[in-house]
Amino acid sequence: MNRVIALLAGVLLALPLVAAPESTPASASALEVTSARRVSPWKLVLNDQFNTGPFPAHWARYKGPYGSDPHNCAIPQHAFVSKGFMRMVFRYRTSGECGAGWYSAGMVLAKEYESVDQKISMRFRIQTFKGVRAHWIIPMRWPSNGEWPSGGEEDYCEGGGSWGCSSYMHGPKKRAWKDYDVDMSKWHTWTFVRRGYTVRVFIDGRQRWVHRGSPATLPATLKRPVLQQECRMFGCPKGKVGSQSILVDWIKIWNPR
Q1: Fewer beta carbons under 10 A from the terminal one: N or C of the chain?
Q2: How does 95-121 read in b/e, with b if 16+ C-beta sit within 10 Å?
Q3: φ/ψ of residue 26, rounded to 5
Q4: pLDDT, tens digit (0-9, with 9 covering 90-100), for 27-39
Q5: How many CB atoms lie within 10 A of CB 45?
């Protein structure tokens, strides 16, 4: 046995010494592919939490009448940050730029945030007092050049009460829409994604609609997000009592990277 061990030891000593192989780095192309897989196609460009501070300067608030109804009028003071939320209030005022009547809130994001494709995520709910119902579109994407209907219009959650809302894609030649049965008085997180000619809508993380459109419903124009509140489609309330508030907890916006 000792002789066998000695012979094996001799063989091992006679073998040439070979260095242990170093770990081979991935090629540059492989690293690029790996990196590309990890990089999101979206870049976060806005993250409004509305926790404290004044109303964000990158939102321009509506002031004065606008065309959806002859008595519909917005006032900047009806959009403000308070107690951790951005609030849009619809109520009757005895005086103002449009005289006595119902005043609402509305706002459009600064031009620097415009994009053809865009992803918007936001958490909000509707509060109604004394049965007052406003008509709202939270959010809308409106063409930056103002051309309509050729520029298109993307209304992602349009409604007038607590029953739910609808998505409408208004193209120059065609429309597409989807209704959602949702309790708007409760907090929900909505995510809207436009990529190419496809739109996806998620409510609380669940996909609720996919619209595979074309330039007929989704023209490829630069658009900006709008949060709009106004009199109902068929006119302002008859009385003077009550209000409706939109409470936005936060809103995030991504543009293509």
Answers
A1: N
A2: ebebeebbbbbbbbbeeebbbbbbbbb
A3: -65, 150
A4: 444 544 444 467 8
A5: 15
pLDDT digits (tens, 9 = 90+) for 131-157: 999 999 999 999 999 999 999 999 999
Decide: 239 and 133 in contact? Cβ < 8 Å: no
Buried b / exposed e over 148-173, threshold 16 CB at 10 Å, is eeebbbbbbbbbbbbeebebbbbbbe
Cross-strand bridge partners of residue 155: 140, 168
- For the stretch 73-118, pLDDT in tens is 999 999 999 999 999 999 999 999 899 999 999 999 999 999 999 9
Q: Peptide bond before 16: cis, by omega within 30 degrees of 0?
A: no
pTM of the model: 0.84
At 83, give phi and psi (nearest 5°).
55, 40
Token pair belonging to 191: 């995510």
In terms of Cβ atoms closer than 10 Å to its own Cβ (0-12, 13-18, 19+), residue 34 is exposed
d(CA 125, CA 247) in angstroms, rounded, equals 6
